[in-house]
Amino acid sequence: MKFTQILTLVCAMAATGLWSTQAQAQNKGDDVILEMHQAFRKGDKTRLSALLPQTRGHVLEPLAAYWEMRTRLDVAPASEIRSFLTSYAGSYYEDRLRTDWLLQLGKRRDWATFTTEYPRYRMRDDREVRCYALATEAMNSKANVAEEAKRLWYALREADEGCTYVAEHLHSGKQINGLDLWRKARLAMDANRPRPAQAAVDIEAPRLAEQVALIHSDPERYLDKRIIAITRNRKELAVLALIRLAASKPDKAAELLDKRWSIQLSQEERNWTWGVIGKQAAQKLQENASGYFAKVQKDSDLNDDLLAWKVRAALRQGQWRQVLTATQAMSPESQKDPAWVYWRARALSATAQDDVQRQEAQGLLRGIASVKGFYEQLALEDLGLTINAPERPSVLSPAEKAAALINPGLQRALYAIAIGLRPEGNREWNYSTNLHSPGGMSDRELLAAADLACQRQVWDRCINTSDRTKDVIDFDQRFPMPLRDIVVRRAGDIKLDPAYVYGLIRQESRFIMDARSHVGASGLMQVMPATAKWTAKKIGLTNFTPEQITDREINVAIGTGYLKLVLDDFEGSMPMATAAYNAGPSRPRNWRKGPVLEAAIWAENIPFLETRDYVKKVLSNTTNYAAILTRQPQSLKARLGSVGPRNAPNAEVNQDLP
Q1: Residue 265: HSE in the Cβ half-sphere, 13 Å Cα cutoff
Q2: 137, 424, 508, 604: which one is catalytic?
Q3: pLDDT tens digits for range 157-183
């Protein structure tokens, strides 16, 4: 390396004061930062103000200053807030405090200050702030912002003040209508969220809003007491009750709709309600789900979520024509999703009447085919290709590495992670790579940032950052293999594919050694305490104690041991074993009942979003890890196989398996 290149790197490290992770964790000001973190969590304004002067010059001073200012933002004068924004201009914490301030200004209806500050807001990722901004646009320029406002409002699971306010404002200005409001109420009721449902109804029909709570608590009783609905609003309340009833009793809701309510409702109301009933039946894997969807006379009356479940129900029945029409009815954004591109291509191939349609199907597959994900890999194989590790991109230059090294946001993030403030570090890292500049970092900048995280062994930031590149793929970054000796040796000892173990760890913990989930799962392989204790006995691990679960060797031994037991119980089926690892073995035992399906269809029909996503990602990861480990072409389809009832119906099931 040339002297000037070496000097560049040395100066970069000296400028940040961060020569190594070990050095970071020993900085004398770290204890003050950690004490301020605890004070912030407790809302202790006095302690925060007393400690703040001791953080001057510390690399995390902007974070400490943010904590202190945030706790008194509601009483701080605008001049002091602007002084903070100026002092930390260009940083994540400038933008984060501005987000908090904009939310406060919106709640206060201080539109003049909001309008002044909003153009300086870089993140643009807070939906409520954007809703307030849409309200100011509608007020200041009479712009028609209804479509974006509805999209944001519909996407929120809980009611927030900003998006509810803009919906009310646009409704009063006749930019959104009653149907728009009732659709929000339907979405909320379907998601078991009565508060946002009531908030939507309160805008359109204030006198009826109290009915929403009654409907949510006992929809069947509500419907039993009402034989007829004359007004439109009363009909919409019946729709909400049918939607709520369908969550637990889709067949009962279908019976009531068919015999009593169908004739009273509009076509749009009927279509939506049948769509929800079909969705709930599909989530219960009922064979009549596609029959309920068949009662929908106009797919365009359904939203993308309902159409997705129509596709899934049709796939289980092999109804390719319905798969095709439902995917074609989705919004342009959803039509670009690799899942629906893939199934649309499959449906076109299955129903093709001529070469033009077959060529269209091939074109759709070519448009998504790659090693990047589950459906992209399936598309590759449908085109007759295999899955291989791509060639590495050109080596990062010293200048590219130095740019990442001296990036203050990345360095603050790494420092925060190193001293135990992982959530704060992750947020600043994501901001620096994704949001600080419009469109985020370029591919080469992302590779350099990922490389920095890899060198520091911050594997989750390494993987997530490299995953964002669009035109280049670095498999060494996207699919790292820490603890290779331990994982490969342990997997070999119990005849388990090491690629499968790595594929699962990558999804479970991103190789964060001390990871702990909200339900208490721990370590690399995210093992629950009870499962760890049970498995330790099964694999002969004597004198095991719960504290040992974060030990790398023990965590891998227990995690792989449990995975092997699950895989054996599911007759070697990776899709079902993966689902069992995530959701427990009893659920995939129920999900496998019914027809024999290709595993991709079975996986797409898993009722739980988390498990559905988990299975697809683990098996996609596994295929790519196998390509790296073996340097041989790989097949995802070979790992998937088919799923159905047990091959030997009377075979003993391991009922003790936790």
Answers
A1: 22
A2: 508
A3: 888 899 999 999 999 999 999 999 999
